[in-house]
Design goal:
The structure is a homodimer. Helices cover 22% and strands 26% of the residues of chain A. Chain A is an alpha+beta fold. Chain A has 2 domains: 127 residues, PSTPO5379-like; 111 residues, PSTPO5379-like domain (PSTPO5379-like fold), CATH 3.30.2040. In chain A, strands 1, 2, 3, 4, 5, 10 and 11 form a 7-stranded antiparallel β-sheet that branches. In chain A, a hairpin with a 2-residue loop joins β3 and β4. Chains A, B: It comes from Neoaquamicrobium microcysteis. Chains A, B: It is an enzyme of class 4 (lyase). Chains A, B: InterPro entries: D-Glu_cyclase (IPR009906), Putative_hydro-lyase (IPR038021), UPF0317 (IPR016938).
């Protein structure tokens, strides 16, 4: 893994494409939106597209490709989705299989690419407003939990919403709600705050994904819909093959982070 | 007390002026901003103006008059502040004195009028979005509490912030935060949510002003800066005379409620 300074999505993608960057993308090319990737055979694409449209908080769609076309001109100049992420994870029949740095050997003419907004741009906005983000300060991954909130189903895609949790002082929780509401492409406003049990989370210290959270005395836990939700829906649908980004290794787009 | 349908601030003010309306103004002339009134001798006016500017959440200024001038052309056509509210309360040396329906007998050439935004327009916005407001549904006044949050002092004006509390389901609490943040003239975003003790409130069932709240199971209490704060600051400053609106009997302005 190498890291460096990248001023734009174009520069990050070029570094991924020629193998100079294979690490995480958190903090790179600040001001540009990063995206979760999901690649599916076209037989699944229509259902998955409807799933995203019906569940815009966990799955805010930034872009969708034509079948077999590795470009996504709506969200970035000259994107080659087969090579422009640092690392990919392959699922076969819903189970994790290989982890690869390009898709040259796997690409199919019926692959459709979906790019879904991620919370990095939201966290950048929090930090820019001097709102402490506990897991970043602690050098951990965000804590994520499977909830009892059911997503809207579409074909074989469905299942519970996965949320990420960030805790704040009450004052900062209020500011985080307002800020995130203005970033619908980064999951928007939270789906819950306060009592974790109300959305089926038994113990905040036992996240289903990510790291144990660092919750300060007096903090309010705030819960956002998470991009792991559509990934879980894909696993439940068990397509013969699906390709997603390796966690933290996102597509950096040319879209600017802007308050709506 | 009589009530009726009033389409605008002009109509409400005319009804107050000729004695047809002497009751509360909640729900009248929807879509128009209502304001708290504070009238002070000019010797206090500069300090109180700075107090409001330094504390925009409890005291969002809608308008301020010239000394002795009963009009406020910035916020309403032909306002006569001496007659355009349904009822006024007089304080002498910080203590409540008479309650009157006009100021003809009390007016002085050095009186300066301050009109401060109130939460009615915010509550209207909540109801319009189908967010239940517990105290309205229960036919009660909102519960208000003195906190341990000190306001910024200016001259003799200072003291603790008074907050109003509204409780919601977590989902509606998030929506109420977002909505209110877009209405800075109606006290804006909340100052606190969750644990009342964190801002010095020992018992939600014992409000300092207003009625006992109706809190549903699973509700999150949300706290907004309240227009009672500047009124308390005036009482602490003990001017020889100060005139405010009778609680709930506001000035209805020509300003539209609009999301900023």
């Amino acid at each position: 893994m190498t890291t460096g300074y990248y001023a734009s999505g174009t520069e990050v993608r070029a570094a991924c494409r020629d193998g100079r960057h294979t690490g995480q993308t958190s903090g790179l090319a600040q001001g540009f939106q990063q995206g979760n990737l999901a690649i599916l055979p076209s037989a699944y694409a229509d259902d998955f597209l409807r799933y995203c449209v019906r569940n815009p908080k966990p799955a805010p769609l930034l872009g969708v490709s034509e079948p077999g076309d590795p470009s996504l001109p709506q969200i970035g100049r000259d994107i080659d989705i087969r090579r422009d992420l640092p690392r990919y994870r392959v699922f076969r029949n819903g189970e994790p299989a290989e982890s690869v740095t390009d898709l040259d050997a796997l690409w199919r003419d019926d692959f459709v690419s979906f790019v879904i907004g991620c919370s990095f741009s939201f966290e950048t906005a929090l930090l820019r407003d001097d709102i402490p983000v506990r897991h970043i300060a602690a050098g951990r991954n965000v804590a994520m939990y499977v909830t009892n909130i059911e997503t809207e189903q579409a074909g074989p895609f469905g299942g519970p919403m996965v949320v990420s949790m960030r805790s704040f002082s009450p004052r900062d929780a209020i500011r985080a709600v307002i800020l995130s509401s203005r970033l619908p492409e980064a999951h928007g406003a939270p789906v819950h705050l306060g009592d974790p049990a109300a959305i089926g989370i038994a113990d905040l210290s036992k996240p289903d994904f990510g790291d144990v959270p660092d919750i300060h005395a007096g903090d309010v836990p705030v819960f956002w819909a998470c991009g792991v939700t559509p990934q879980s829906a894909i696993r439940r649908a068990r397509p013969e093959i699906a390709i997603v980004h390796e966690p933290g290794h996102m597509l950096v787009t040319d879209l600017r982070v802007s308050m709506s």
